[in-house]
């Protein structure tokens, strides 16, 4: 209905620009809202009030001009002026039936927007490849994938990207941890560093490395720990202890250090890829942090560009980015006095790289603990002459697991967190994907494992899927009874849908494209989830109150048309949230 009315208003404005003293370049945005009170009509438009200032006229007078210029339409019963200048449209009830025709004609494309000719990158998860994904990463994955899929459905050209942190100290700690476990697999006796990666998966990689390379990488424990600072439990410094071990590994192994480094990186990254793929999350690009310092060195180029723009200052041999000039709370080091660039410098280069790849907007989905990082990244963009508003950052809050009223302390092989894989195996992909996005991403969420597995109306994903399966069951029953139904037969009888609940369902179906467009633009998949739950609830109420397969064939055909339209919209919405739409339950 909105499209119908928007077209009529646009035609009226075109007429007024050609026949009235209106500027030809006057192109207001036509915004329509559904009236909360049916007594005021079906749709309301504020275009007259938007035109009051440029036309220097009373908005009610402008509204009257627009109403008088509206083309005749069978879909609009009348248009009235209300309040300070709203135009309220009362629609012919037959216009409501058009949504079913649209749904049948467009199928899985129903609700999708026209191409926007705008490229958007969505970067999400991007967890350090130092261990399995945990339940916190899972929420970022579900949220990011849904945001990307909704934006694509809204008409944007979307690229999904995972930033692989395959450089820096944490990766060296991982590589050294794998090597030490390898040495143990070779029979060496040593005390594993308190700041090394402790999980059993590291020991697995060590054994696999020994199986594939034999004693090629073996060095005696006495050589490895020679001159190394004591660890913290022995009265030493755990940070210096692990850094000394990293240096010893690089010195003793030489070029072979890359073997142990890549073993940890590739094994964990492969596990992450597999885990996310099984979760229905896929990327077009896995961007390597190491590539930023390859030839050409993009990190040095980014720092040089900041320097040319006057935003780098040298202090005691280190280079500082003057981010306080852009509202950050303090300046930031980009190159230390020892010549090493910082992680922040890599991040600056990475964001410069993103925009140089031609993205109109970049959406970063980060954990809530990155809140303080937003200002400095936006400051860097501004210093690089890139509009910081082109970067959108959405934070994902933490997840607490519950089984009923009891918080769950599940442990993994690492003994420190719950993996995404464990969660998926417990409740299934569908429940995990839906429960993760049920609430706004910036709100902490309690994930009830028992509720996610329950087959009840209190479980929202089950409730929605059951509505979809219920329609399939109706159609199977019809076929089993030797009867036939076609879309054409249903469309021919739509005027029989005169019950209030049927009219409400038609209006709800017509809202789907608006809900999808808004959810995409606001990066809020929870609003789409809430809509689907409401639509499923309305359908269940309708099914329980009215007979679907009665003796009146014409009425049956009309009701089946409405039911199948509901099923299609449920399926379309669930697919954007990464949730299946089963035919049987």
3D architecture notes:
The chain is α/β, with parallel strands linked by helices and 585 residues long. Among the domains are: 2-91, Gyrase A, domain 2 (2-Layer Sandwich); 169-270, no CATH class; 460-576, Isoleucyl-tRNA Synthetase, Domain 1, CATH 1.10.730. Helices cover 50% and strands 12% of the residues. It has helices at 2-19, 47-55, 59-69, 93-106, 135-153, 169-185, 200-213, 221-224, 238-253, 257-278, 298-308, 343-356, 373-383, 420-427, 429-437, 449-453, 460-480, 487-491, 500-510, 512-521, 525-545, 553-576, and strands at 32-34, 43-45, 76-82, 86-91, 119-123, 157-164, 285-288, 312-315, 318-321, 332-335, 361-367, 391-396, 399-403, 406-407, 445-448. The strands form four sheets. A five-stranded parallel beta sheet has the order 7-6-5-11-12, covered by helices on one side. The chain has a four-stranded antiparallel beta sheet with strand order 1-2-4-3. Strands 8-9-10 form a three-stranded antiparallel beta sheet. β1 and β2 (43-45) form a beta hairpin. The longest helix has 24 residues, at 553-576. Residues 411-415 have low confidence and may be disordered.
């Amino acid at each position: 209905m909105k499209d119908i009315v928007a077209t009529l208003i646009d035609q009226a404005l075109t007429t007024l620009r050609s026949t009235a003293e209106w500027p030809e370049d006057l192109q207001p945005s036509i915004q329509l809202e559904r009236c909360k009170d049916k007594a005021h009509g079906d749709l309301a438009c504020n275009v007259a009030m938007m035109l009051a200032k440029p036309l220097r006229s009373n908005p009610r007078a402008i509204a009257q001009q627009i109403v008088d210029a509206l083309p005749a339409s069978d879909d609009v019963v009348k248009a009235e002026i209300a309040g300070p200048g709203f135009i309220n449209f009362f629609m012919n009830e037959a216009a409501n039936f058009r949504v079913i025709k649209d749904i049948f004609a467009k199928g899985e494309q129903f609700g999708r927007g026209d191409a926007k000719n705008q490229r958007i990158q969505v970067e999400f998860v991007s967890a350090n490849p130092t261990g399995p994904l945990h339940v916190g990463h899972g929420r970022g994955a579900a949220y990011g994938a849904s945001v990307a899929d909704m934006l694509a459905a809204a008409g944007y050209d979307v690229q999904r990207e995972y930033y692989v942190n395959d450089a820096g100290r944490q990766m060296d700690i991982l590589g050294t941890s794998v090597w030490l476990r390898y040495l143990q697999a070779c029979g060496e006796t040593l005390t594993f560093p308190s700041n090394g990666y402790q999980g059993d998966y590291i020991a697995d990689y060590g054994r696999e490395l020994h199986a594939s390379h034999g004693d090629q990488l073996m060095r005696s424990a006495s050589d490895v720990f020679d001159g190394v600072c004591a660890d913290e439990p022995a009265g030493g410094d755990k940070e210096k202890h692990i850094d000394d071990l990293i240096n010893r590994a690089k010195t003793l192994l030489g070029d072979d250090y890359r073997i142990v480094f890549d073993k940890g990186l590739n094994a964990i990254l492969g596990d992450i890829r597999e885990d996310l793929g099984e979760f229905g999350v896929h990327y077009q690009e896995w961007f390597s942090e190491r590539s930023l310092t390859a030839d050409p060195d993009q990190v040095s180029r980014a720092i040089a560009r900041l320097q040319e723009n006057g935003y780098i200052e040298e202090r005691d041999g280190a280079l500082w980015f003057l981010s306080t000039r852009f509202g950050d709370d303090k300046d930031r080091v980009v190159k230390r006095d020892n010549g090493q660039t910082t992680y922040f410098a890599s991040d600056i280069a990475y964001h410069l790289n993103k925009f140089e790849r031609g993205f109109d907007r970049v959406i970063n989905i980060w954990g809530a603990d990155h809140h303080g990082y937003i200002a400095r990244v936006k400051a860097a963009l501004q210093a690089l002459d890139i509009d910081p508003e082109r970067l959108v950052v959405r934070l994902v809050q933490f997840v607490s697991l519950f089984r009923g009223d009891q918080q769950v302390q599940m442990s993994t092989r690492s003994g420190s967190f719950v993996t995404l894989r464990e969660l998926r195996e417990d409740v299934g992909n569908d429940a995990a994907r839906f429960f993760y996005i049920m609430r706004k991403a910036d709100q902490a969420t309690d994930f009830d494992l028992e509720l996610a597995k329950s087959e009840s109306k209190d479980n929202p994903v089950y409730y929605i899927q059951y509505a979809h399966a219920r329609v399939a069951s109706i159609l199977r029953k019809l076929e089993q009874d030797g009867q036939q139904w076609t879309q054409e037969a249903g469309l021919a009888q739509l005027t029989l849908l005169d019950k209030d609940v049927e009219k409400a369902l038609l209006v709800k179906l017509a809202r789907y494209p608006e809900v999808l467009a808004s959810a995409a633009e606001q990066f809020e998949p929870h609003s789409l989830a809430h809509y689907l739950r409401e639509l499923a609830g309305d359908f269940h109420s309708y099914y329980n109150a009215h007979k679907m397969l009665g003796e009146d064939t014409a009425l049956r055909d009309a009701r089946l048309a409405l039911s199948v339209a509901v099923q299609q919209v449920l399926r379309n919405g669930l697919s954007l949230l990464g949730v299946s739409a089963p035919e049987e339950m």
